[in-house]
Design goal:
201 residues, four-stranded antiparallel sheet, two-stranded antiparallel sheet, 8 helices
Length: 201
C-alpha cells in the first residue's frame, strides 16, 4: 500500500516468506482461509482454500509459557519410517476433508506421531484435554504449533461446551486455562481506515 499498490499479493507472499521463513504464517495472513505451504530455497509455494464448512476454532490457552526452543528440543532428530507414513496419510486425509466438507474422517486425520507424543510431557494433561474436546463434540483437536495452546475444530455449534470441557480437563491436572472461540478469516490482509493509529517517521 505504501508503494502505491505496485506489489501483488503473490509478490508480497514471496518477500514475506523469505524474511519470515514460515510461509504457513505468512500465506493465511495475506490471503486468509486455510491451506498448505512450503519453502523451496527462497521461494514459497502455497495452495489456499476456503473450507465449505462453518468451522470454528476453540483455542485453549493454559496459564504457563512454553518457549518454542524448548518445544523443539524434545523432538527427535529422526523418526521411524512407519511414523512418517502414518502422518503423511493423515495429512492428506485432513486437508481433503476440510476442502470437501467431509467431517467423518477428521477425528482420525488429527492423529499424530511426529511431535505430539514427544511434546505432551511439556503440556500437563494434554492427552486428556484433547480427549475431552472430542468427547464434547469437536471434529478433532491438536496441539497448536509448538504449544502450549491446544486447538479444537468445531462445526455445527457446541464450541462453548468444547472450550469448557478442555478447561475442566486442564484443571484436573492443576493447570488454569481459558478458551477463545475463533472463526477462520476468509479475506486476509485488508487496507482500512484506523483513526486511532498514528504512523511516525
Amino acid at each position: 500500500e505504501l508503494s502505491g499498490g505496485r506489489l501483488s499479493r503473490q509478490t508480497l507472499l514471496q518477500l514475506a516468506s523469505r524474511w519470515e521463513r514460515h510461509p504457513d504464517n505468512v500465506a493465511p495472513a495475506i490471503y486468509g482461509g486455510m491451506g498448505a505451504r512450503v519453502m523451496t530455497g527462497e521461494q514459497g509455494f502455497f495452495h489456499q482454500f476456503q473450507p465449505p464448512l462453518p468451522v470454528q476454532l476453540v483455542v485453549v490457552i493454559p496459564d504457563f509459557i512454553l518457549p518454542t526452543v524448548e518445544a523443539r528440543r524434545v523432538l527427535p532428530a529422526s523418526v521411524p519410517l512407519a511414523d512418517a507414513v502414518f502422518n503423511l496419510g493423515r495429512t492428506v486425509l485432513l486437508v481433503t476433508g476440510l476442502m470437501t466438507g467431509r467431517t467423518d474422517n477428521l477425528a482420525v486425520a488429527f492423529e499424530d506421531r511426529l511431535h505430539q507424543p514427544y511434546r505432551e510431557v511439556l503440556v500437563p494433561g494434554m492427552r486428556q484435554v484433547l480427549a475431552a474436546a472430542a468427547k464434547a463434540g469437536a471434529m478433532g483437536a491438536t496441539l497448536s504449533g509448538a504449544g502450549p495452546c491446544l486447538v479444537a475444530f468445531v462445526c455445527d455449534g457446541g464450541a462453548e461446551a468444547v472450550g469448557e470441557a478442555m478447561e475442566n480437563a486442564f484443571a484436573k491436572h492443576g493447570i488454569k486455562a481459558h478458551h477463545k472461540i475463533l472463526s477462520i478469516d476468509r479475506d486476509g490482509a485488508q487496507v482500512g481506515d484506523n483513526p486511532g493509529m498514528e504512523v511516525s517517521g
